[in-house]
Write a structure and sequence with these properties.
The chain has one domain: Beta Barrel (Porin). Helix content is 15%, strand content 50%. The chain is built from seven helices and 18 strands. A 14-stranded antiparallel barrel has the order 2-3-4-5-6-7-8-12-13-14-15-16-17-18. The longest helix is centred in the first third of the chain and has 17 residues. The protein is globular and about 65 Å long.
Length: 390
Amino acid sequence: MKKILLIFIISACIAAAASAGEGDTVDSAVFAPITPEVIGQGGSFTAVAHGYNSLFTNPAGFAREGGSLTILSATASPFFIPNEEDISDFQAIADAASDTELEDALLNLSPLITGNGIGAAGTAGIGLVGGGLGLGLVANADFYGRGETALGTAIDAVMDWAIIGGYALPIEIGPVTAYIGGDLRYMLRTEARDVAIVEFASAATDDVDPQFPVLSGSGLAFDLGTILEIGKWSAGISARDIGGTTLDYSQFTADTLEQAFSFDGSGAQVSENYVIPMVMSFGLAYDPESFLMPSFLFDPVFHMEYRKTFYQAEDAQEDSFWTGVHMGMEAEVVRFLKVRAGINQGYATFGLGAKLLFLDLNASYFVREMGRFAGVQPNEGFTLEAAIRF
């Protein structure tokens, strides 16, 4: 075990040193796939981390109860709530045979694009978490844009492949059980920044040929976390992308979405230092064991956390305090149903889950803050997960 911890510490030092290279520093997106279990609880999970989602939140959860073998998890997360007209306009975008038809369809979506913003995410993964071990292979794609005008909107898109491996162990200290864990995460990433929405949308059509720059490369991340349990209370701390995770990027030009997400690897080395910033999370949880009725009928857990992102770019603006606040609860109802609710950055979230033998189904509605201050740029969406999980 000492050797494993030594490897983690050395890797963290290497990551910190690498992020201090020459050239301007640019913040890349944090690796945090949206999942119904977590976002349905207001995005709070640090103090209650367990199972598959501890791969994205707190590696101390690898050693806690609630471990799982996930044969396949597939999650879809539209960052909007579509109506019938929106669906028709999306179909018009896919069927567009010219720039004019494409622009007309986007103009029809103006209320959505300029009000809520437009985007989506999709995640697919496998994972083994339990008995101290955490292993996962995860693919995650995410894009979002919002502008003052529909055709003036720019899209940011990220695609990740991540291999995650880590270990956690429990330590008994009198009445306290401490779970301490860490993991290494090797990532392949492509990202396209500030792509005109017309160019991005045309990449999904057969008859319009766009061209936009894409960054492609890899990086090695290090995460560390702990959870302390005493009686009905638990507290958790996690540090993800310790020291900042430097991405070794080159740039090439793509003319299709498939090419943009191919991890091409060709092109010229970029002069800027692209870094995934470190994120620290501090959480607290309370498990009353029984609440208003017998626990086999209704068994809730209440929790909250504060999250701080350490941006590295010189011109980066600090988030306000309230954008880092997350609160939530999950209640097990008659053993196989889960009811979730929370407050995510000041906005309400709700979710449901059901476990039927090996089939795990989860869904959540959420609002998140896309600006640096709560209440400035709310983005509404929902997320669905279907998983084969034991």
